[in-house]
User: What shape does this take?
Amino acid sequence: MPAMTARPYAAGFRAALGGGVTGGRDFDSDALKITLHGTGYTPNYDTDAFQSALTSELTTAGGYTAGGLTLSGVTFSAVAANSWTVVAATSTAYVAGQIVRPSAGNGFIYVAAVGGTSGGSAPTWPTTLYTTVADGSVTWCCIGRGAVALDFADPSWATFTAGPFRYAVVADTTPGSAATNPLLCAFDFGSGQTGGGGTFSIAVDPAGALVLPY
Assistant: This one.
């Protein structure tokens, strides 16, 4: 499975950052958990704010424990474009959503608007926000001068046969109840998945699980 980025819950993030009953959260020290949910759950990224909006979580079985896995190595930090750790490479496969900076930093970061394989030489990177450039079969879009990134170690489950599930949802569980634990983001696997008996891991994109450009 390729490295993945997650999609944010707008209402949940607003609540977590001080716009809801939870007050302002500290992601670096709070307990963030990830839960797996079947196709019976359809995320509403605009209005789902707290864990109480979630449905169809997997039950405790097949290597999964209901209530979720506590994430480790959590960081939430701002990174300027020229300090971005993921550098664009030639002749490399990229999936839509991956974020890079040019090898010669120019003060901007770029998202793969269309996935594909980059060309044999670097493109002329645009420096006007929201303009695009073709690079082999990849289309890059200039999205900002840096980003705030939520990152954590790749979550994994051993001897995993649970499923089917489609979504992995990250929530801040420090407030303590489903009605007050804000939803942060979700990984969408595109279809129902079932473990094959080995270790199942979510490969988090090196740029971060959730990237908010500025």
Observations:
- The chain is about 5% helix and 35% strand.
- The helical segments are 10-16.
- The chain has a mean pLDDT of 94.
